Amino acid sequence: MTERTTQPLARRQLGVGRLGTYTALGAVAGTVPLPWLPDAVARRIRGALAHDITARCNLSLTEEARKVLAEPSGILGTRGFVGTAVQYVAGKVLSRMGPLGLLAPVRNAAQTFILGHLWHRYLTGMRTDRSVRIDVDEARLVRRAIDQAILSAITSDVPTRPEDIGRAPEDFRDQATVLTDGLIIGAASLPGWVVRRLEAAFDEALPRAEV
Predict the structure, then answer these.
(1) Is pLDDT at 176 greater than 70 in this prediction?
(2) Could you write out the DSSP letters of every residue in the chain?
(3) What's the whole-model pTM score?
(4) Higher pLDDT pick, 77 / 13
(5) Would you say residue 123 has pLDDT above 90?
(6) Alpha-carbon span 209 to 34, nearest angstrom
């Protein structure tokens, strides 16, 4: 029987720039101009990411568990022949519509980042199982929570902790600079706000996924 504890396992660092590199590779996978290949490449990248993070936490990932985490289309598995073909045709149409052609790379990059960030969050701060082997059932549980977190972050009002941005003791800017700084800083803060929403949604979804 697996021994459990009420305390999460020790946190380990993911590595500076490591997740960013996987995210960039995920974006590249979305640019492959052939049907079926983008998902195949994405599975390889996501599988390597899941293994890398797991190994850095001194844990092992079974082959079935890796497949669950690496699947781009979610917990239900592959979309099948028709679904993949339709997605490919839609992607070719979007590619003729200027900036919308970037949707596939952006989507793949975002999915890769979210998997890496939330899988690392789970292993280093939320996992209470003392077994060094992660099996398919545990991977399905976490994958369900990740998929639900993505949906909740987009469609629900997820409560998030406010960002501590600090205050300058003295502000020597004129009003025009204050305005432009506010717009630029707000844009720069958007990714962090999205990540905090995902974290909050994942923290809420994980206990429900265990039921």
Answers:
(1) yes
(2) ---B-SSPPPP----TTHHHHHHHHHHHHTT--SSSHHHHHHHHHHHHHHHHHHHHTT-EE-HHHHHHHH-TT-TT---HHHHHHHHHHHHHHHTTSGGGGGHHHHHHHHHHHHHHHHHHHHHHHT--B--SEE-HHHHHHHHHHHHHHHHHHHHS----PPP-----SS----HHHHHHHHHHHHHHHHHHHHHHHHHHHHHHHHHHHT-
(3) 0.75
(4) 13
(5) yes
(6) 35
